[in-house]
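Q:
Just now I want nothing more than another pair of eyes on a protein record. Here is the record:
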Amino acid sequence: MQDFRTVAAAAAQQAGTIIADAYRTDFRVDYKEGATTNLVTEVDRRAEAAIIETLSRAFPDHRILAEEGGEGSPQASPYQWIVDPLDGTTNFAHGFPAFCVSIGLEVEGRVVLGVVYDPLRRELFEAEAGKGAFLNGERLRVSRAATLEQSLLVTGFAYDQDGRRGNLEHFSRLVLRSQGIRRTGSAAMDLCYVASGRIDGFWEMKLCPWDVAAGSLIVVEAGGVITDFAGRAFSIYGHEVLASNGLVHQAMVEALAGR
């Protein structure tokens, strides 16, 4: 597993260098499927190409699921890398400094490795299943906030209008029960902030596997809890993510359900 972790960290940092070098410069911005709220830049594509090249060179038989469509080996393999080359593209395109690279490794349906890299702060979050979570080599632990009233929360809103409206009711309930709610625009970063104790709870709908694969493992390995909104088992292929320090998890489940 150490080789996997070393290669993944190197790939994330290489992509991070591409992103940091391009930050606040001129670059092309396109729109996915004609949606003006779902951006992709040439920097996303260059960062993804660099990650795929690194992973494919080291592990030529592994599959790769990447947000911008890049692929590794087409043959069947129990190993699948799940890549978001630039999580927080809208932030990046506007010059807002909150974005990261996310790389997860799934083996036979289970995420066993997660790496998230913030290229501006040079923060490397890492976790291996059963071995703990780390930030730049220092072990991570979730916060000890015991109630929603003591908690700082974070959420995100879907790209489509129906998804955004669907989260407004959740937001209105939790903003009245917590110390505050933030919205960074990067789900992978939000999950790492839960893992590091900077945030006590996070929820979001309509995310994709590349948004949550790495971060979900980092949360769990830091001692946190991750489920769907009803408290059921979490899947990176599901449509709901609720992550917390564990202590406020049930209260968030109840608030999201309107109880």
About this structure: The chain has a mean pLDDT of 92. The first strand starts at residue 29 and ends at 31. The chain is about 35% helix and 25% strand. The helical segments are 2-22, 42-58, 89-94, 161-175, 187-195, 209-221, 249-256.
